[in-house]
Amino acid sequence: MTIEPRAFRDALGLFPTGVAIVTMRANNGERIGATVSSFNSVSLDPPLILFSIARSAKAFDAWAGASHFAVNILSESQSEVSNRFARALTDKWDGIAEPADPKSAPLIPLANACFSCECHARHDGGDHLILIGRVTSYTTTSGERPRPLLFYRGRYRKLDPDVEIETPRGVDYSLHGW
Fold it and tell me: In what order do the strands lie in the sheet with 150-152?
């Protein structure tokens, strides 16, 4: 079977994802960030997460050598920030304060969750590089019912938290493995 890239991308778009901004501090001190939907948990013990970055990314070399980075899970009110970090050559950091520690990876204010990581492993992912991070600290929103920014079929979407589908007891562990 020949895989046509656009049709393959459309098929992948049938899987809804959250939206995250990954951030790091380059060796020269520059703040670097990119919007990704390729974020996933890997392990609880040790605490590992992953994301992938396109080899075509302007800052790919910096990502490939990153020793520390952060993954910021966006809330549904942050589509503008997501758009800004998805575009090359824009002022991504407008309105985002420098972290107190100038060596640390910047965090995105008002994100639902922020995970600070040290790089644990890198793996070839074809036209992407897969970075696995060991979580060294994290914060979550203080909101009682955080609402995530979702991406589905090439568009941002909203979660309707008031519509629930019955989930049998215990299935949460078997579905997720944690």
Answer: 17-18, 150-152, 155-157
Q: Are 135 and 49 in contact (CB under 8 A)?
A: yes
49: how many CB neighbours lie within 10 A of its CB? 20
The conformation of residue 78, written as its DSSP 8-state character, comes to G
- pTM for the whole thing? 0.89
Identify any residues that bridge with 128 across adjacent strands, giving them in sequence order. 54, 125
Give 122's strand partners: 131
The structural domains of the chain, with segments of one domain joined by +, span 5-176
pLDDT in tens, 132-177: 999 999 999 877 778 999 999 999 998 877 777 787 776 655 555 5
Q: Per-residue pLDDT tens for 109-128?
A: 999 999 999 999 999 999 99
* Region 5-176: CATH code: 2.30.110.10
